[in-house]
Amino acid sequence: MNGHLSVKHLLAIKELTREDVELIFSMADYFLRQVLSSPTRKAPGMRDVVVANVFFENSTRTKLSFELAAKRLGADVVNFSASGSSVAKGETLLDTLRNLLAMKMDVVVVRHSAAGAAHFLSRRVKATIVNAGDGAHEHPTQALLDCYTLRQKFGEIKGLRVAIIGDVLHSRVALSDIFALNLLGAEVRLCAPPTLLPKHIESLGVTVCHDLDPTLQWCDAAIFLRIQRERQHAGLFPSTREYSMRYGLDRRKLESLNKTIAVLHPGPINRGVELTTEVADGPQSLILDQVLHGVAVRMAVLYLLAGKRFD
Ligand code: NCD
């Protein structure tokens, strides 16, 4: 397959072109068909590449997904978690990275609580950097896998009405989703209490609605966001119970719509808060498709970026 990304690192959706996203999606199609649908096959396009997964914040899905993606491509993978490392002894981010790179790592997948951490590293170290989430800024591969999942379900993203519901204020997924959905021509509406929305968010080309029912009536697909308790330092909504009554989705609300919408969530779900178990595990949920597609999309990203190293 031909084609090159316009970027050397994957730091933010904001830096990608539409052609970049389409290239990633067609590579992901290939990996989904040829590799992930057959358990023993690998596509060893990264055999001489070392990938370091460097996580300064907790993660289950994203870390495993990147690890599996790199391994399916035949790369060597090392995993680093800040807890239990010398970061606890006061080592800086840059020193930690420089030490890892002295051991000859080629691609660094990094998650950090500070917005801009991936950009910072990309300007200071020689490795290819992939942003796996930087504070409340961006989480580009999550947005790519969300859009890829919508494309698989609906055929095309252009003209699709997508609602993003919940804690937009603290969510890096929301920002990356907005940029990616806009780039691909979807209409985006945000739904949350005013306290969980950034000021002037409409300037990003989205509409806002504070009520869930009309938002659900409007949309083809709804992406529910986790309430980010760890990033909230003030009581931004009265109680979890009240939040889930107004902004959570249960079967009754879903069935009262006179149409079928797709339900997505990046995980981890607060069951009973954003989605009830019946909805999260129900027929309209694409949550496990998102997880599978995450591996295909990350294989595509790693493969395309590793190819850039030799340009
Ligand atoms: C997201 C994250 O960490 O930003 N999760 C994920 O990557 N699957 C969303 C979240 O934590 O709510």
Strand-residue proportion: 5-15%
Please provide the count of β strands: 9
Q: Strands of the biggest beta sheet: in what spatial order?
A: 7-6-5-8-9
Largest sheet: 5 strands, parallel
- The first-level CATH class name of the largest domain: Alpha Beta
Instruction: Catalogue the unreliable spans.
Output: none
The quaternary state of the protein chains shown equals single chain
Order of helices and strands: HEHEHEHEHEHEEHEHHEHH
User: What structural class results from the helix and strand content?
Assistant: alpha/beta
CATH architecture grouping of the largest domain: 3-Layer(aba) Sandwich
Summarize model confidence as the mean pLDDT.
92
Spatial shape: globular
N→C terminal distance: 16 Å
Overall tally of structural domains: 2
Number of helices: 11
Helix content: 25-40%
Say which CATH homologous superfamily of the largest domain is assigned. Answer: Aspartate/ornithine carbamoyltransferase
Compute the CA-based radius of gyration: 19 Å
CATH topology of the largest domain: Rossmann fold
Heteromolecules bound: N-carbamoyl-L-aspartate
